Amino acid sequence: MNISALIPTVYPGNLPGFLQVAFFLSLLLLVFKAAQLYLHRQWLLKALQEFPSPPSHWFYGHKIHRDQELQDLLTRVKKFPRACPRWFWGSRAHFVTYDPDYMKLILGRSDPKSHDTYRLLAPWIGYGLLLLNGQTWFQHRRMLTPAFHYDILKPYVRIMADSVCVMLDKWEQMISQNSTLEIFQPISLMTLDTIMKCAFSYRGNVQLGGKVQPYIQAIMDMNNLLFSRLRNAFHQNDIIYSLTYDGHWTNRACQIAHEHTDQVIKCRRAQLQDEGELEKIKRKRRLDFLDILLFAKMENGSSLSDKDLRAEVDTFMFEGHDTTASGVSWTLHALATHPEHQQRCREEVQGLLGDGTPISWDLLDQMPYTTMCIKEALRLYPPVPAVSRMLNTPVTFPDGRSLPKGVTVQLSFYGLHHNPKVWPNPEVFDPSRFAPERTQHSHSFLPFSGGPRNCIGKQFAMSELKVSVALTLLRFELLPDPTRIPVLMPRIVLKSMNGIYLHLRKLP
Question: What is the CATH number of the domain that holds 307?
Fold first, then answer.
């Protein structure tokens, strides 16, 4: 017997009245949604018509394998030197630019962060400095800027050095057993240790205990999960996503991250109950990051809400350690693969610190060649590969082409830094690009973004990079592991799909 004969055919006319209404309403909603998506696609096609791109499927968009994202970008950079639309699916596209003139124009405007992209970060880091827009962002930025004043940063150098030395001591013990080492994980612990001591007045050492390992893993998970979600049309809806395996995983990672930052805030609040600690703060000319937040008064006289407080702590806890860990790791990798530059940096550092002189703020400006190498590594491996803006007014670029209000613009720093029209032979590691006598376009090098929304902690990050590189080169010779060549992985922060492995040789 044909099995289909056992299954009754259901027509709308056979359904009870309320089900018929539900059926037709659902059908109407489906038709409405399809029409809405079709009209939005037509609007996008018209908005982006002045900018050619590779052929794309009307439904799937540009299908690019996850492992090939950056290779595909570099192909586009060579073929379309200023910008190129990237279609994710039928009704979603970003305008991707990697031209310094385009970058300068967009970054100088007051366009908000792209809602479609950045809202996915909100359950994790909340609406702090990274996600805020408009007047609220301006108030928070002005409130937090004193935390990065030179008077605050100078004594941090000693704390940074102590954290780096703990990591290097551990490396010495590890290489006695195995001379190859994955460096990104321990560097992440070191930068987290540094940011917790400098910005959050933490009094322990996260490198010597295992309590923060779940937080580090949660950050790694969130990087991957958010990247995956951005490229899945069905995961854009929060309700649908919450029902998926990835949605449950994301929720758990957020909980772990929040538990960590909540504990940091709780600890500092407890310390501030001590009269001696309060007296110490009163004697300070300027407050540390977390103390500014805890003592903050907004313009209307109200204190920062617990929600806003945690958002800023979550934001800076993540940005203050993960991006810097990326920068340090890729810089050490670049020096390992270019031994002649590594040795020149080492000789420079030995000339300053070889007699046992402790590293200090003043000495950081006396490492010109090491600084050039760090900048060249940041050019090749920008810690944040891209940011996005949503145009709130139309824009006309210097070449006469224009975009209407409502288009999402992705500013690809990786594409900019590898653009042969901007940087000749862009894949070559050449620190002389940053020699003092060389001139560059003001927006050709943007490892910390640019414009009024540039990275508030860029001076902090550069100081930590210099301290980490200098002290590492004093103690170790770095060599690449030819059996484990890193595979670049563009996430919120630039990482390697297979880790970053180096051979370390202890110097006499």
Answer: 1.10.630.10
Structural domain includes residue 54: no
373 annotated as a binding-site residue: no
- The residue whose two tokens read 């180096």 is 502
In a domain, 8, yes or no: no
Q: Report the domain count for the chain.
A: 1
* One-character DSSP codes across 318-384: HHHHHHHHHHHHHHHHHHHT-HHHHHHHHHHHHHHHTTSPPP-HHHHTT-HHHHHHHHHHHHHS-SS
What DSSP state is assigned to residue 393? S
Structure tokens at 324: 């810097």
Rounded Cα–Cα distance for residues 486 and 496 (Å): 6
Q: Does the residue 35 lie in any domain? A: no
Give the CA dihedral 459, 461, 467, 472, nearest 10 degrees.
Answer: -160
Residue 6's pLDDT band (cuts 50, 70, 90):
very low
Q: Which domain, by its residues, includes 185?
A: 65-506
Give percent of the chain above pLDDT 90.
75
56-109 tens-digit pLDDT: 988 888 988 877 899 999 999 999 989 999 999 888 999 999 999 999 999 999
CA 42/CA 262 separation, integer angstroms: 46
Per-residue pLDDT reduced to its tens digit, 307-319 = 999 999 999 999 9
Query: Which helix H or strand E contains 436, and what residues bound it?
Result: none
What's the pTM?
Answer: 0.92
